[in-house]
Design goal:
With about 110 residues, the chain is of the alpha+beta class. It is built from five helices and four strands. A hairpin with a 4-residue loop joins β1 and β2. α4 runs antiparallel to α5.
Length: about 110
């Protein structure tokens, strides 16, 4: 697999790593090339509509990603994400919201 492709891989049931097509460049000169998403709990989902998350609504993703990413990406970082990277992060997140019985099918489609 080409490492420059945007990919989401299952690290466990509680986290997923997404390799970014376009690195996030920080003001201090550092770059983030991959982001680990942690499975959101009810606290991370506060104030959000699950329907909007399942639809990968941009504003909903920009709200939740800073709550569940390592290294933590900020809301301004999410506003500057490449569209393909936002889709990859959203897809990985939605995978957490799908029941375990359907998760394997969802992640391979």
């Amino acid at each position: 697999m080409d490492t420059t492709e945007t990919t989401a891989t299952a690290a466990s049931d509680n986290s997923r790593t997404v390799v970014l097509d376009t690195p996030i460049r920080r003001a201090n000169g550092s770059e983030i090339t991959e982001v680990q998403l942690l499975k959101p709990n009810a606290g991370a989902l506060r104030g959000l509509s699950l329907t909007e998350l399942l639809q990968m609504n941009t504003l909903a993703l920009q709200t939740i990603l800073p709550r569940i990413t390592q290294p933590q990406i900020t809301k301004p970082d999410t506003a500057n994400l490449d569209a393909a990277d936002l889709v990859a992060l959203g897809t990985a997140l939605v995978g957490f919201l799908v029941p375990k019985a359907q998760r394997a099918d969802f992640l391979t489609e």
